């Protein structure tokens, strides 16, 4: 299989971490297919009409896209370990919360990376950060016990989200007032799968 990916995409990082944790990375070739909404990658748009990565090109079926779809597929190959039936709804909700953080963080990054300075709208950017802050507060207050449990897709999604905040929005200081989440992420970042997928320009 082939994974169309990018060294800076947190959605791709989710998939890459799962590949390494599950041992499926030896079955997948990772291909850089970076692009932006203004300059989409032709290889990506040929496999995914939306033009977004990650995309998993399979040998025996149509390409899969959207990180959650790909991760569910990979989990099915790994035996259902990362979306355990017993805690499925909790895992899916935590993953959705982490992906919501990524959605807002990516919109913030696009605002200053792609939009001309004279038409940037700071209140809109701050509104995106408010979403992120609320989500982080909920994880700190309600989800630490889950994160301290057996590794699942929720852990990987939160790890990718926090890593992206460090990468693109470090000045916002997401750790302030969130000691439990800070401690968890420090330990989670030491996993070889996270070390091997640190975003790079």
From TrEMBL:
- Domain GST N-terminal: residue ranges: 1-82
User: What InterPro entries does UniProt report for this protein, alphabetically?
Assistant: Glutathione-S-Trfase_C_sf, Glutathione_S-Trfase_N, GST_Omega/HSP26, Thioredoxin-like_sf
GO molecular function: any one?
transferase activity
What CDD domains does the database record attribute to this sequence?
A: GST_C_6, GST_N_3
Q: Does the keyword Transferase apply?
A: yes
Q: Which GO terms describe its cellular component?
A: cytoplasm
Keyword line: Transferase
Can you say what this protein is called?
A: Glutathione S-transferase
């Amino acid at each position: 299989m082939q994974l169309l990916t990018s060294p800076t995409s947190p959605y791709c990082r989710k998939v890459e971490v799962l590949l390494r944790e599950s041992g499926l990375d030896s079955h997948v070739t990772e291909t850089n297919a970076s692009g932006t909404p203004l300059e989409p990658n032709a290889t990506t748009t040929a496999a995914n009409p939306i033009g977004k990565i990650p995309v998993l090109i399979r040998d025996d079926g149509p390409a899969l896209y959207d990180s959650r779809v790909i991760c569910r597929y990979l989990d099915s190959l790994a035996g259902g370990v990362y979306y355990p039936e017993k805690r499925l709804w909790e895992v899916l909700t935590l993953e959705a919360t982490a992906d919501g953080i990524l959605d807002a963080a990516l919109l913030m990054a696009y605002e200053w990376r792609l939009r001309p300075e004279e038409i940037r709208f700071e209140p809109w950017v701050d509104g995106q950060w408010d979403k992120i802050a609320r989500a982080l507060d909920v994880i700190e207050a309600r989800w630490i016990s889950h994160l301290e449990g057996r590794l699942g897709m929720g852990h990987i999604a939160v790890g990718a989200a926090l890593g992206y905040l460090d990468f693109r929005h470090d000045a916002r200081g997401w750790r302030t007032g969130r000691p439990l989440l800070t401690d968890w992420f420090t330990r989670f970042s030491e996993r070889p799968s996270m070390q091997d997928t640190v975003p790079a320009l």
